[in-house]
Amino acid sequence: MQNIRELMRTKISSIIDKKIYEFESFKHKSIKKIFKELCFCIMTANCSADKCIQIHNKIGNNFLTLSESQLSLKFQNLGYRFPNIRAKFIITARNKIFELEDALKKYNSNDLRSWISQNILGLGYKETSHFLRNIGYKDYAIIDFHIIDILISNNIIEKPTSLSKKKYIEIENILKGMANKLKLTLAELDLYLWFIETGKILK
Predict the structure, then answer these.
(1) What DSSP state is assigned to residue 203?
(2) Active site residue 144
(3) Is the pTM of this model over 0.90?
(4) Where along the chain do its domains lie?
(5) Which of the chain's ends, N or C, has fewer CB atoms near its CB within 10 Å?
(6) pLDDT digits over 152-178, tens only?
């Protein structure tokens, strides 16, 4: 945590504040723009975030109109790793875009994450948390191998044999305790941890 305290006194703090502000702006955007962010989070599982950002930007509004076969071909042409299965996931999610819009209005934080992970194909707890963080929700941890490696190297947790929902919540609660001590939200903490591990602040 000392590394984070030190970073909080540098220009990295203002960069993270700006990124959080960008995330919060999604609360005032249309469901179509929110859906495009969902597409990004579907894309990122087991893929380079940098590469996904590039491809996501190139496809843009076409996420809203391309057929599954067209999107798969577009992914292939752009060098995306999982063109067929992720195209399927995205088109399936697009068919639930208005259900998603209703869920965002209807559910509180915990119920919302559960609903999305259960109803949007291709999103587990990590990807759902990523999506919700990126559209302005601050109380979710995005637990991937980067975060787990940091926690293991600092003797905060032992290496999990798997990342079940129960284990995810357990690690999230540990991160929540860290965030509280640092007077950060989980969204802010994630960006600091990601920077410590990768030297980058992405989304």
Answers:
(1) -
(2) yes
(3) yes
(4) 2-24+141-198, 28-134
(5) N
(6) 988 999 998 888 989 999 999 999 999
